[in-house]
Design a protein that fits this description.
two-stranded parallel sheet, 3-stranded parallel sheet, alpha/beta
Length: about 100
């Protein structure tokens, strides 16, 4: 299944009093979504995450709420420094614009 909060919530509710096993094979995604999924896993309390393939970026964040995390021998788990898009001209008005151009 695609990994979004609403689908995760539906599965967790259907399995409210059972262990839920989640297989993750995903390169990334939305940090906000995966933080939310992590909280959903933690609130459920009995989630086990298993990583296969290459997992990176926000996909690794979702697992942090699991009670148990494992990874296949050939699996990969990439954690990197946080980053965000930066556009220098996106937040200035005409006053500092001339200075920016001169620099």
């Amino acid at each position: 299944m695609d990994f979004d909060r609403s689908k995760v919530d539906k599965e967790l509710v259907k399995n409210d009093d059972k262990e839920v096993n989640v297989l993750i094979d995903r390169l990334g995604g939305s940090l906000a979504t995966d933080l939310s999924i992590s909280v959903a896993f933690r609130n459920h309390g009995d989630v086990a995450v298993h990583f296969v393939g290459l997992n990176a970026s926000a996909a690794t964040i979702a697992s942090l709420g699991a009670a148990h995390i494992s990874i296949d021998r050939g699996g990969m788990y990439l954690v990197h420094k946080c980053s965000t898009a930066f556009f220098e001209w996106g937040t200035i008005n005409s006053d500092p614009f001339d200075t920016l151009i001169a620099d």
